[in-house]
Amino acid sequence: MRPRARALPISLDGATGAHNAITDVPGVEVGYVTLTEGTARTGVTAILPRGRDGVGTPCAAGVHSLNGNGEMTGVTWIEESGALTLPVTITNTHAVGTVHRGVIDWVADKHPALAEEWLLPVVAETWDGYLNDINAPHVRPEHAGQAIDAAAGGTPAEGSVGGGTGMNCYGFKGGSGTSSRVVEYVDRSYTVGAFVQANFGSRAELTVAGNRVGPALMDDNPMAARTREGAGSVIVVVATDAPLLPGQCKALARRVPLGLARTGTTGSHFSGDIFLAFSTANEGALTSGFAAGEDYEALRFVPWGRMDRFYDAVVQAVEEAVLNALTAAEDTVGRDGHRSPGLPLERLTDLLTRAS
Question: One of 24, 128, 241, 273 is an active-site residue; which one?
Answer without folding.
Answer: 273
